[in-house]
């Protein structure tokens, strides 16, 4: 059943030309972040004393110019993108695992268990999340791991709600009853019968979570409480660029364009996936 | 005849009762929500208190280590030498009296004073951005829905997609570049009392992403509502198109927008951290960021508590607006 849905969704996605373009762009960007820095002439923290704050295409080897310390902007942006994407993937994975397990169990057990588990989610939901993420980064020091924990701590809430709703609906289906009658354990029913059947919405929501996480990470890094120099992230590159707006506008343009491209592509892809996987909207 | 019946309804004990009953239930609704907000607020306070105590390193860690006697005196002066439970109790007692405690880094100020300084700026900024977002977003969405697949629709939708992908911290520098550095219409940054032009760019930067989202939401929901049978009924009764849209379709179409108002307020508050830092406005957001960088526990906690209270209040307002717009919920209140 999952396979059939998957193939149908793939077909629908293939017909959506913008979605294909977005997927291609994202694939190329990921490839560039992995292979790019090795192919280019400069390292991300290497200072070129003879070309400081050089505009794009003027200094040899610096395709997109350098920052005010003479570091190659293309290499730094690729590195920043790599860190931003890695954090986004990891945080999304964390929220996916917790959210799916939590939601599936709550929806499957129903009744009092469900009420308590979802009450917990409601309480966390009512907290001002961004501010707690800031407190967490203060508490655990600034760095990639803290950001991951801070974002992961709240990221799973919506996933749990979505999965719980789906699991509640699945609970009344005959094949679940059949599995219970067959003597399967709760863990087995969840893993083999419930979770595979809610992969569709999970994939869609995970795709839409990625750009959110990228934005939160960049937001923290922009404020100076995220990724710290000399590490690059899209957020602190944008912050650097914003400070040199008048003298070196490319320093803002390159990372900002990269950030917007990635966020836009993920958002668009998520929307297309939702259209493809959700038969109700068709 | 009609007048007589209306008078009879009002004069009837039953009718009067019902009227009173509705007023009471709205009040009861507000009270219940306010009471429900107390546990949330206590949780916010307890969690932020616990987390800040967990932090390695304290507010008196300077470049140069303080002599132990001075350090002990300082900690005693701020009450940091007592157990966490005692500290929490004292903090709560202070809060009930409106006392947020002293700031650890701004030595001459209490957190309450810093909040009183920053709150008007932040509130003005946030309120301006929300008004701008609704004032432009809703008409843009209506315009797009009415010219479906036309030029206005495409423009609004392109803007909406751009607005969702472009974060505030990119919008703010771009606006500065165009309107302050190139056109020289507005100041780059800064805050001088009595210079209203200072707050124009911050408000616009904060509002743009929200405008985009509101426009997209309004368009989608208006298109959906316009397909409803009761809209066809309104048209069949021969109402002018203008009346159909403004009186019948729009109130129903605004429901999703109102339920988005809560998340929108959260987004505006978070964005105001960026905007205040970037444009150098003396609001609460800048204090929060600075406090976080300085490990100024009391300052950070005070700011988070105020932000949480603001969000709770705003969600309550949004719920009230929702009830006022949706006749189904209104009826539930009466019963």
Structure, explained:
The complex is a heterodimer of chains A (282) and B (335). With 282 residues, chain A is mostly helical. Chain A has a single domain (7-41, 65-277), classed as MetI-like (MetI-like fold, Orthogonal Bundle). Chain A is built from 11 helices and no strands. The model of chain A has no long low-confidence stretch (mean pLDDT 83). With 335 residues, chain B is an all-alpha fold. Chain B has helices at residues 2-11, 13-54, 68-77, 84-96, 111-146, 151-165, 168-182, 200-225, 229-236, 241-253, 255-279, 284-294, 297-325, 327-334. In chain B, α5 (111-146) runs parallel beside α13 (297-325). Chain B contains 14 helices and no strands.
Chart the SSEs and their pairings:
The complex is a heterodimer of chains A (282) and B (335).
Chain A: H1 2-15, H2 17-39, H3 73-109, H4 111-126, H5 129-139, H6 144-171, H7 174-181, H8 186-194, H9 199-223, H10 234-243, H11 250-277
Chain B: H1 2-11, H2 13-54, H3 68-77, H4 84-96, H5 111-146, H6 151-165, H7 168-182, H8 200-225, H9 229-236, H10 241-253, H11 255-279, H12 284-294, H13 297-325, H14 327-334
């Amino acid at each position: 059943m999952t396979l059939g849905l998957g193939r149908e969704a793939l077909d629908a996605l293939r017909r959506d030309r913008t979605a294909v373009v977005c997927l291609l762009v994202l694939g190329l960007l990921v490839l560039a972040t992995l292979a790019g820095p090795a192919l280019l002439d400069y390292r991300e923290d290497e200072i070129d004393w003879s070309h400081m704050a050089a505009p794009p295409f003027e200094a040899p080897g610096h395709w997109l110019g350098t920052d005010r310390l003479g570091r190659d902007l293309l290499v730094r942006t690729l590195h920043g993108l790599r860190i931003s994407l890695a954090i986004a993937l990891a945080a999304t994975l964390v929220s996916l695992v917790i959210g799916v397990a939590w939601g599936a169990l709550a929806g499957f057990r129903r009744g009092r268990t469900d009420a308590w588990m979802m009450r917990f989610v409601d309480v966390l939901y009512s907290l001002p999340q961004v501010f707690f993420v800031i407190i967490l980064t203060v508490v655990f020091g600034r760095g990639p791991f803290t950001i991951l924990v801070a974002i992961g701590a709240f990221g799973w809430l919506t996933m749990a709600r979505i999965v719980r709703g789906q699991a509640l609906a699945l609970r009344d289906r005959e094949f679940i009853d059949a599995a219970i009658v067959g003597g399967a354990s709760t863990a087995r029913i969840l893993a083999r019968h419930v979770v595979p059947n809610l992969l569709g919405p999970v994939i869609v929501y995970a795709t839409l979570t990625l750009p959110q996480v990228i934005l939160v990470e960049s937001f923290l890094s922009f404020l100076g409480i995220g990724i710290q120099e000399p590490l690059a992230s899209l957020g602190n590159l944008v912050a650097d660029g914003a400070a040199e707006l008048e003298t070196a506008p490319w320093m803002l343009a390159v990372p900002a364009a990269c950030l917007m491209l990635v966020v836009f592509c993920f958002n668009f892809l998520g929307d297309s996936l939702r259209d493809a996987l959700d038969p109700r909207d068709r | 005849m009609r007048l007589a019946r209306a008078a009879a309804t009002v004069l009837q004990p039953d009718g009067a009762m019902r009227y009173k009953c509705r007023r009471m239930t709205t009040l009861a609704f507000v009270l219940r929500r306010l009471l429900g907000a107390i546990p949330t607020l206590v949780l916010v306070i307890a969690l932020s208190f616990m987390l800040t105590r967990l932090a390695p390193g304290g507010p008196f860690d300077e470049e140069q280590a303080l002599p132990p006697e001075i350090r002990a005196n300082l900690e005693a002066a701020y009450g940091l030498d007592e157990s966490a439970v005692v500290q929490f109790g004292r903090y709560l007692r202070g809060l009930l009296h409106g006392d947020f405690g002293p700031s650890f880094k701004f030595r001459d100020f209490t957190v309450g004073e810093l909040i009183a300084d920053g709150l008007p700026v932040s509130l003005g900024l946030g309120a301006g951005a929300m008004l701008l977002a609704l004032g432009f977003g809703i008409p843009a969405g209506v315009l797009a829905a009415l010219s479906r697949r036309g030029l206005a629709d495409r423009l609004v939708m392109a803007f909406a997609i751009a607005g969702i992908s472009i974060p505030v911290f990119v919008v703010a520098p771009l606006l500065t570049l165009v309107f302050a550095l190139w056109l020289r219409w507005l100041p780059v940054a800064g805050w001088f009392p009595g210079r209203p032009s200072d707050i124009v760019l911050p408000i616009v930067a904060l509002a743009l992403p929200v405008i985009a989202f509101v426009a997209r939401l309004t368009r989608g929901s208006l298109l959906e509502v316009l397909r409803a049978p009761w809209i066809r009924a309104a048209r069949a009764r021969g109402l002018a198109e203008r009346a159909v849209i403004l009186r019948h379709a729009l109130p129903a179409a605004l429901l999703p927008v109102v339920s988005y108002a809560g998340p929108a307020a959260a987004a505006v508050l978070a964005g105001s951290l960026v905007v205040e830092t970037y444009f150098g406005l003396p609001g609460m957001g800048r204090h929060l960021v600075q406090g976080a960088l300085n490990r100024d526990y009391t300052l950070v906690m005070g700011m988070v508590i105020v932000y949480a209270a603001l969000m709770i209040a705003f969600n309550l307002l949004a719920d009230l607006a929702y009830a006022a717009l949706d006749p189904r919920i209104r009826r539930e209140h009466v019963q």
